[in-house]
What we know:
The chain is mainly alpha-helical. The chain has helices at residues 2-21, 23-42, 56-67, 77-80, 83-114, 117-127, 135-163, 168-183, 202-217, 219-227, 236-260, 272-289, 301-313, 326-340, 355-383, 387-398, 413-439; strands spanning 346-348, 351-353. The chain crosses the membrane at residues 26-47, 87-111, 138-158, 202-226, 238-259, 309-337, 357-381, 419-439.
Amino acid sequence: MESLRTARDRFRAWFDRVALESPARLTLGGFALAILIFAGLLSLPAATADGERAPFMDALFVATSAVCVTGLSTVDMGTFWSPWGLAIVGVAVKVGGLGIMTLASLAGLAISRRIGLTQRLLAADESRASGLGDLGSLLRTVVVVSTTVELTIAAVLIPRFLTLDYGWHKSVGYSLFYGVSSFNNAGFSPDPVGLYPYSGDLWMLVPIGLGVLIGALGYPVYLNLLRERRPSKWTLHTKLTLVTIAVLSFLSAGLLALFEWSNPLTLGSASTAQTIGNVFFQSINQRSGGFASFDIGLAREQTWLLEDVLMFIGGGSGGTAGGIRVTTLAVLVLAAWAEARGRRDMEAFGKRVGTEVLRVAVAITLASAGVVLLGTAIFMWQTDIPLDRSLYEVVSAFATCGLSTGITGSIDDDAKMTLIVMMYVGRVGSLTLASALMLNRHRRVIRYPSERPIIG
C-alpha cells in the first residue's frame, strides 16, 4: 500500500512538472496516445456493423478525426459503425474536447508562472481570477459547462427523435451523440442521412447550432461569463471573442445567402423561412462545427472560398473549435486599424493590446497558412483532385472543422495519411506554437539600432 502511494505521488509530481513546464510535450504525446488507443478500439470487429474488422487506415482516420474533434470521415458514420462503434467515437470526441480545453488551461497556467510578478498580478486582475494558479477552478468549469450543455442538448432532442419513431434506445443514443458532437464542434452525425432531412426543422437545428456556438467560445469566456455578469467587467479577451464571432456569423450568413439563395441544388428550392434558418445554422458551422444542412458538394465555388476563409479563422481560444482563432484575427484587424489611423498603440474597449501579442498572432497566421499551402500541394499531387476541392478538404482538416465537398471517402491511403497529419497538426499545433512563443521570452541587454524598411 505504501509503495502504491509512493508511485502515485511520483506520477503526480511528474505530471505536474511536465504539464506546467512543458505543456507542448504533454499536448503532443497525450493526443497521439489517445488517437492510437481509439484507433485500436475501432479496429475491433464489434465496432463495425457487419462484424468485420475495419481497415486500420480508416479506423486511424476516424479516431484522429474524433480525438481532434474534426468530423471528417472516410466511411459512412451511420451505416459502417455498429452502436458500439458509434459509442467509441462519441467517447473519443468527449475525451478530445475535454483534453483540448484542459491542455489549454495548463498552457495558460504555465505561461502565467513564467511571467514576472507584476505582469502576473496585472493578468490576474484582468481575468478576475481568484488566484495566481486557478487550475482547479478552470478544470471544474470545463467539465461542468461541457457536460451540462451536452445533456441539455440531448434532453431537447430526445422528444424530437421519439416523434420520428426512433424508439427510446435509439432516440437517447442519437441525442447524446449529437449533444457531444455539437458542443465539441466535431460535426459527426450518427444518422445515415445526416442532417439533410432536417434542413427545415428548427427543433433539430437550433439546439445543435447553439451547442456548436457555445463550444466555439472557449473556456476563458465561460469562466469570465460565469464569474462576471456585467458586460462592463468582462475581460478584453471575452469582448473580442464575442464581438468577432457575432460579426463573422452575420457577415457569413449574408454572403452565404447571396451565393446560395438562387442555387436550386442547395437553398434555392427551400421556402424563405427554411432558407433563412439554414443560412444562420450554416453560418455557425462554417467556422468550426462541421454540420451541414445541405450538400456542400453541390454549393457554388464562391461558397467554398468563403468557407475556406471562415474555417481557417475558426473559433475562440481554449475551446473546441480549430483554426487560427477569432482573437488572432481581431488582433490583426486592430493592428491594421491602428496603422491606418496613425496610432502608435492597438486599442480596443479602453484597453491597449501589447505588440508582443501582435507578433504571436502574425507568427500563428503565417505558420498556419504555410502548413495549409504545403498540405494542399501534397494532397493535389497524391490525388489529382482540382485546387478548389483539395484546398477545401485540407483547410477543413487543418482547422478541424469537418465540412467536406464529398471527396473524403474516395481518396487513397496516402491522401488519408496527409489529412490525418493535417488534423493532428491543426489541433495540437496552434496550442503548442502559441505556448512556445509565449513561454520563449528572452531579454537582451544590447539591442540593434532601429531602421524601417519600405513596406508596400
